[in-house]
Structures are given as structure tokens and as C-alpha cells.
Specification:
Length: 264
């Protein structure tokens, strides 16, 4: 259990997909962080983390975006994102962007050391053992590639979900298998992406769960879209919504303007 700072100042990195498709995840993140005795702010200067440009090989635009992020989150004790992919971009890839710029490199390394995925921050840094939430149903959990492989987010969400009253968790056998979204992967290789998410959707349905949970909106939009096109009754939500007890909003894929990625 770790409590590195009392009442730390946390800058919430909202992420593009949360901002555009699922603002309720941002509000859930704020609620959870405040429950962990954090002082939360949402810097207005923030935009994208630069991952789409980075994955496309556009280092010049990625550096420009990264500088803006460095400025937006300067001075916070921690930066927390409800997304393994965005947190992973900042932690693992920002430092190398500025190898030729000592001043910016130092800032990027400093930001990287202070940046965490939401649920791992709650468990590993703030020592959160349980949440005050209830959800009556059965859920299964998908591990996003970035959260799992770059940030070692695996046990943390499952531990906290175990404290949600009324919730039964069932294992997803292919939990660690990519859903096929992969940022620009689903655009570059739509047929492969669609086959991957088709397999994933079938595995989700086979668990008998009525709810699919994950920590990345890209994965959730992709899987929710495929489940909906299959006529599945399984709903999808970001893990933060269940942990915060904020499940009044329609499930992902049921609101106007929300859809999955890739071709059906």
C-alpha cells in the first residue's frame, strides 16, 4: 500500500474518446480520485496525447502535441488517465520524442514518472482497497493491450471490482487477446480487425455475462459495436463507471452517435 503524498494535486487527462463519446467516464474518474483524497483538476489546455500521429509515423506533429501536454500538466503531483493507451503513450513514448532536446527531454521524463492509468493509480499509489458502489449483475473483463503490456494493469481492476456489492465476475478466457481495435490498426487492416473482434464478441457472449468491462474506450467502442451488430444483449461499460457507482447513463453503443470501429 502506497500513499506518497497527502491530498495530491491530480491533473485528469480526460482522453479524446472519453471527451467525445463518453463524458460520464471522466466524471466517474473524478469521483473515484476524490474518494482517494486527491484534489482533481481538468486542465483546459489539454488535447490529444498524440498517439494517432505517433502510430502513423508523424513525429513532428506528435512532438508539437506532446509539448502542449507538457505545458498543460506542469505543476501537478500526478497525471491520471482513464485509459491505458494514453497513459502508456505519455509514460513510455514521450521521453524518446525529445532525445535531441535536453530541456524538453527532462520535462518529458518528469511527466512520464508522474503519469498513471486510473485504476492502477487508485490501487498502487493511493492504496485503495474497496469502493462504495453497487451493481446487480454478472460482468466479464477485457484487458486492453496497452494497459496490460505497457503498464501491467491486470490485478488492480479485478481487485476493486471484487468490492462492488451485487457484482459477480466471470473470467473471459481470451481476456488478454487483442480486440482488433489497435488504434490505426483497424483502419489499416479492417478485415483482420473485424475477424479479431468477431472472435472476441463470441468469447464474451460465451461467458454468460450481461456486462463487458474494460479500461480503454477504443476497445469498448470496438467491442460494443460488434456485440450490437450481432444482436447481443451484453452491455459494455468503462470500469470506472461501475467502480464509481455511476451506471445511470446508457451502456456504450446505446447512446446517439456511439458506434464500434471497423466493418461489420
Amino acid at each position: 500500500m502506497t500513499h506518497e503524498k497527502e491530498n495530491p494535486r491530480v491533473g485528469l487527462f480526460v482522453t479524446c474518446l472519453v471527451d467525445l463519446f463518453r463524458p460520464s467516464v471522466g466524471f466517474a474518474a473524478v469521483k473515484l480520485l476524490e474518494a482517494a483524497d486527491c484534489r482533481v483538476a481538468v486542465p483546459r489546455l489539454q488535447t490529444c496525447c498524440g498517439q494517432p500521429a505517433y502510430n502513423s509515423g508523424d513525429r513532428a506533429d506528435t512532438r508539437a502535441i506532446a509539448r502542449q501536454v507538457l505545458d498543460a500538466f506542469d505543476g501537478y503531483d500526478y497525471v491520471v488517465a482513464p485509459s491505458g493507451s494514453c497513459a502508456g503513450m505519455i509514460r513510455d513514448h514521450y521521453p524518446a520524442l525529445f532525445d535531441d532536446d535536453p530541456e524538453q527531454s527532462q520535462r518529458a521524463h518528469h511527466l512520464a514518472r508522474r503519469t498513471y492509468e486510473l485504476v492502477s493509480f487508485l490501487r498502487d499509489i493511493r492504496g485503495m482497497e474497496a469502493v462504495d458502489a453497487r451493481y446487480d449483475g454478472t460482468a466479464t473483463y477485457h484487458d486492453s493491450c496497452s494497459g496490460l503490456r505497457e503498464l501491467s494493469v491486470k490485478e488492480q481492476p479485478r481487485h476493486l471490482l471484487g468490492s462492488v456489492d451485487g457484482l459477480t465476475m466471470v473470467d473471459l478466457p481470451s481476456a488478454e487477446v487483442c480486440c482488433g481495435f489497435g488504434g490505426t490498426f483497424c483502419v489499416k487492416y479492417p478485415e483482420i480487425s473485424n475477424h479479431m473482434v468477431e472472435d472476441k464478441a463470441a468469447d464474451i457472449e460465451a461467458t454468460g455475462a450481461d456486462l463487458l468491462l474494460a479500461g480503454d474506450m477504443g476497445c469498448l467502442l470496438n467491442m460494443a459495436g460488434k456485440l450490437k451488430r450481432r444482436g447481443s444483449a451484453v452491455q459494455a461499460r468503462h470500469v470506472a463507471e461501475v467502480l464509481a457507482g455511476m451506471t445511470d447513463a446508457p451502456a456504450i453503443g446505446e447512446s446517439i452517435g456511439e458506434s464500434g470501429e471497423g466493418e461489420s
